């Protein structure tokens, strides 16, 4: 009933108790009363939504159910425990989800699911906000974004293949499904996710983990941050566009934990971060982790600067071989309107049979050096032409110098349909984060 996986149906599978069902099912009740199950939440917190899922239970679901809660920080509930009803009795249907919003701000540690009088529940989901357990004033760096410390994923651009909340779970992901994955982007822009930290703090180190994402990891990432005062979670998306840069854009790699310390800007205390991934891709649990000491006030702006470099041989040499036209053999063509720099570079290697070994590269330019002001300004070509399927060369040129580099495409990838309004920005307190079944009636 607390499994993080969706319930499944297995046709023709039976055990010593009868038909095998994926969930919790009590026996037929032949006396007064009702059945119940007590669950310890994975983390203490407030409950904001409950889903009573009867998937695959058609003739054996409970006609109704209710949910109670209690707070027992260091003990288990007993006969003297005072239970508080947070979801009054509601009618249930077979093979259906029953999602109910809970308007209660109290902190709970246990839930009690009551079914009237008996039957089966496939999954119980309790969504809410974990209670922050951060010790204010501690000098020990702590993961401010972790769900166990009160971190919450508030909004994202897309979660087609994986929920955004997964990136805040404890430990590394067990597979790609245990992370946040976006759909492959076919339009300009990039994907992003906004996280509310469990407590304001100064960021000292950031971890971005692409565990299990090998052909669909993001090419790079950056992080913006802010100390947000007031407002609602719903309006945070627009505000985040103007947040300051905490981490400049950094190259990422497949199936790897990336740690950033020196690159992190000193911004003072912050409450929210926005992880940008370019252009799309995936993050595994434990990414976007932020460690810092806790302070309440103060901030420092960190401007971003761009360094301009001249279009010369030395500027382009780190990216590949540079072809210089100075001193190369050339002659006039097109009635003197164009200078042909001929046979200035051999194309070597093991070309396909469609390309002759004598292939060469040539460049034309206007003798008046008028750049782009006429049709003869600058033109480069290789002969014979590559077939479309093996033509990875891009050319940059100007009068007097030109370069060539190979272009590669970064594998883009995927993320999953948005959660319901009730569960958005909330954590699954009753599953996946250490929840345990407790007492039950039978």
Structure description:
The chain is mainly beta. Helix content is 2%, strand content 39%. It is built from two helices and 29 strands. The protein has helices at 236-239, 313-316, and strands spanning 14-15, 18-19, 24-25, 35-53, 64-70, 84-91, 97-101, 108-116, 120-121, 123-130, 142-143, 152-156, 180-181, 191-209, 220-226, 244-251, 257-260, 270-278, 282-283, 289-293, 322-324, 330-333, 338-346, 360-365, 378-383, 393-398, 401-406, 427-428, 436-440. Strands 4, 5, 6, 7, 8, 10, 28 and 29 form an eight-stranded antiparallel β-sheet that branches. Strands 11, 12, 14, 15, 16, 17, 18 and 20 form an eight-stranded antiparallel β-sheet that branches. Strands 22-23-24-25 form a four-stranded antiparallel β-sheet, with no helix packed on it. Strand 22 and strand 23 (338-346) form a beta hairpin. The longest helix has 4 residues, at 236-239. Mean pLDDT is 77; it is low at 286-304, 353-358 and 382-420.
Total strands: 29
Task: Bin the strand percentage.
Answer: 35-45%
Tally of separate helices:
2
Helix content: under 10%
Largest sheet: 8 strands, antiparallel
> What gyration radius follows from the Cα positions, in whole Å?
30 Å
What is the distance, rounded to the nearest whole angstrom, between the alpha carbons of the first and last residues?
15 Å
Structural class: mainly beta
Spans of at least 5 consecutive residues whose pLDDT stays below 50 are 286-304, 353-358, 382-420
* Overall mean confidence score, pLDDT: 77
Principal-axes geometry comes out as elongated
Any chance you could write out the topology, listing elements then pairs?
Blueprint lengths: L13 E2 L2 E2 L4 E2 L9 E19 L10 E7 L13 E8 L5 E5 L6 E9 L3 E2 L1 E8 L11 E2 L8 E5 L23 E2 L9 E19 L10 E7 L9 H4 L4 E8 L5 E4 L9 E9 L3 E2 L5 E5 L19 H4 L5 E3 L5 E4 L4 E9 L13 E6 L12 E6 L9 E6 L2 E6 L20 E2 L7 E5 L2
Antiparallel strand pairs: 1-2, 3-9, 4-7, 4-8, 4-10, 4-29, 5-6, 5-8, 10-28, 11-20, 12-14, 13-19, 14-17, 14-18, 14-20, 15-16, 15-18, 21-27, 22-23, 23-24, 24-25, 26-27
């Amino acid at each position: 009933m607390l499994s993080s996986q969706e319930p499944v149906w297995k046709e023709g599978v039976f055990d010593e108790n009868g038909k095998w069902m994926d969930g919790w099912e009590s026996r037929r009740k032949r006396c007064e009363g009702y059945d119940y199950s007590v669950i310890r939440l994975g983390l203490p917190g407030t409950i904001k939504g409950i889903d009573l899922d009867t998937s695959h239970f058609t003739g054996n679901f409970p006609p109704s159910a209710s949910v109670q809660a209690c707070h027992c920080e260091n003990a288990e509930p007993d006969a003297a425990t005072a239970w508080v009803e947070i979801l009054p009795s509601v009618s249930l249907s077979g093979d259906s989800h029953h999602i109910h919003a809970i308007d209660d701000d109290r902190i709970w540690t246990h839930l009690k699911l009551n079914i009237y009088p008996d039957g089966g529940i496939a999954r119980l989901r309790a969504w809410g906000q974990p209670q922050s357990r951060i010790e204010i004033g501690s000098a020990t760096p702590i993961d401010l974004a972790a769900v166990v410390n009160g971190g919450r994923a508030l909004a994202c651009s897309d979660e087609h293949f994986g929920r955004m909340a997964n990136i805040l779970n404890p430990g590394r992901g067990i597979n790609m499904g245990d992370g946040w994955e976006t759909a492959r982007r076919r339009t300009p822009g990039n994907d992003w996710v906004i996280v509310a930290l469990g407590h304001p703090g100064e960021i000292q180190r950031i971890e971005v983990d692409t565990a299990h994402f090998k052909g669909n990891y993001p090419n790079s990432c950056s992080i913006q941050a802010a100390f947000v005062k007031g407002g609602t979670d719903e309006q945070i998306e627009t505000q985040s566009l103007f947040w300051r840069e905490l981490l400049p854009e950094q190259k990422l790699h497949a199936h790897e934990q990336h740690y950033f310390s020196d690159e992190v800007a000193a911004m003072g205390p912050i409450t929210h971060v926005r992880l940008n991934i370019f252009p799309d891709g995936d993050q595994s649990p434990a990414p976007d982790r932020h460690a810092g000491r806790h302070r309440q006030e103060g901030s420092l702006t960190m401007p971003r600067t761009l360094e301009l470099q001249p279009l010369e041989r030395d500027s382009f040499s780190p990216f590949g071989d540079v072809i210089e036209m100075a001193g190369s053999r050339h002659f006039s063509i097109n009635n003197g309107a164009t200078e042909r720099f001929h046979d200035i570079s051999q194309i070597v290697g093991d070309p396909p049979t469609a390309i002759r070994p004598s292939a060469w590269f040539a460049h034309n330019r206007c003798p008046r050096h008028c750049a782009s002001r006429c049709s003869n300004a600058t033109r480069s070509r290789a002969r014979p032409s590559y077939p479309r399927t093996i033509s990875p060369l891009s050319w940059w040129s100007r009068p007097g110098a030109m370069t060539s580099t190979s272009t590669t495409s970064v594998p883009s990838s995927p993320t999953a349909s948005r959660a319901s309004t009730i569960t958005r920005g909330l954590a699954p307190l009753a599953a996946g984060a250490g929840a345990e079944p407790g007492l039950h009636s039978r």
